[in-house]
Amino acid sequence: VPHTAAALIELGALFFGLGVLGRLASRIGVSPVPLYLLGGLAFGTGGLLPLDGIASFADLASEVGVVLLLLLLGLEYTASDLVAGLRQSWLAGVVDMLLNALPGAAAALLLGWGPLGALAMAGVTWVSSSGIIAKVLGDLGRLGNRETPAVLSVLVMEDLAMALYLPITTAALAGLGLVAGLRTVGVAMALLAIVLVVALKYGRFVSLIVESPSSEVFLLRLLGVALLVAGLASELQVSAGVGAFLLGIAISGETAENATRVLAPLRDLFAAMFFVVFGFNTHPGAIPAVLPAALALAVVTTLTKIATGWFAARGVTSSPVGRLRAGAALVARGEFSIVIAGLALTSGELNPGLAPLATAYVLLMAVLGPVLARVVDPVARAVVTRRQARAGA
Amino acid sequence: VDVEVTRLPGVGIKQEFTTATGRRLGVLTYRDGHRELLVSDVHDPDACSATVPMTEPECVALGTLLGAPNLVAQLRAEHAEVPGVGTTQLPITADSPYAGRTLGDTAMRTRTGASVVAVVRGGSVHASPRPDFRFEPGDLVVVVGTPDGLRHGAEILEQG
Prior knowledge:
The complex is a heterodimer. By secondary structure, chain A is mainly alpha-helical. Chain A has 15 helices and no strands. Chain A has helices at 3-28, 32-43, 55-76, 79-110, 114-126, 130-139, 148-173, 178-210, 215-235, 240-250, 253-280, 287-312, 320-329, 335-347, 354-392. In chain B, a hairpin with a 5-residue loop joins strand 2 and strand 3 (24-30). The mean pLDDT of chain B is 85.
């Protein structure tokens, strides 16, 4: 079979397989991310059927996937959302970081992966999956709940924090010294500040660059600008994803809505490629060895996320049921943990156990999170009612 | 009523208020413009026991249902000092003989002595409609008159 034909067949089989997995995920009501990871594990290195013909395409496509994931995340927020969130919930954001990043860092240090490993694992356990959580809250009809704004503002704070964390990690993994590292972080902070100001005051001008009445032209311009910005950000060691995220924030109003509509299918396609490629590059045989660590992290960081939600919801409700609901909603980890582990993986600097650990951890948390969010309500109500009955008796 | 506005980053805007009986009622407007009606749970005021997606015409219909009695109550208060005069709202149903016909066709004033002072349609009030005003199914007709006149007016709009 000629090379092109083999590549097309492999790619076709891959997409079709992902389609089947995606359908399965929506049938059983879980996020497709863990299934894509499993799909990648099954095919890639050491898996059942290594796909060699499409390796170079798959690698580039997965990079584009990260750019689109973060671009659409940025498009969801307006600059005023972010500034308001920063004012109201910075403390919840700090508590969230301390409670959830430290267990990951501690685990990496205990496993002997050094400070770089600790930095990467801190990110993996820190960041909740805004994709999974927004979907779960919508499905469960909780968007109108009183605790929900607190949950969403924790997610906003995490996403904002990523605009600093990703450049720091990128610089650290690239082995830059302290001075060069600080410069990168300075560039990232300056970019974030500039983008927020530009988006608040001159957002419509940024939108004008990509705006076009023809949806074809619009798509090409948008994708072009996104990849250019991502590439430049990558060149500045700020990480491609952060560049795309900032661009997404700067595009506002109706243009942002149109952009989301046009790009969402592309994001689904390329992000699926990203998760699969991450699975490809993870050796399934290495997972059993890291499973105990993954389980321990899952237990600890489930509790710390519940505590985070409990703390974040303190201002909006005094009911323990509402506060537990906020905590359980935040438990899911997903796309961001994999993005961070992916950074670590491509740098090749880190212990080979990190990717399998991140994979096992995300597989656990992406499934556990939505389940917990669902069961917390009846359980918490029953416990609170029983306690009140006992107090009354 | 104090309407509380909460921004839901990445989702939209929530506007809600608490009723005298302690329930939260609100509207969630998503960024793409579609809306949901929120009703808080009786036992758990943090949670919502109903989130109802509403189309534009449905929002308008609900607004009419809730808004028209308001107008009637206001008119009633204004006519309170005139003995023997009342105000009521009469719906134009799809099978009313006057659905699609004009106010003049009903000859309401000549036949009953009662006057049509307003028509509520789609959440907005058409005050003092002229005889060529054409009724549509779903309109609420606000009528002022004597109790007998109002009863007779209701029969006319229902049966012709």
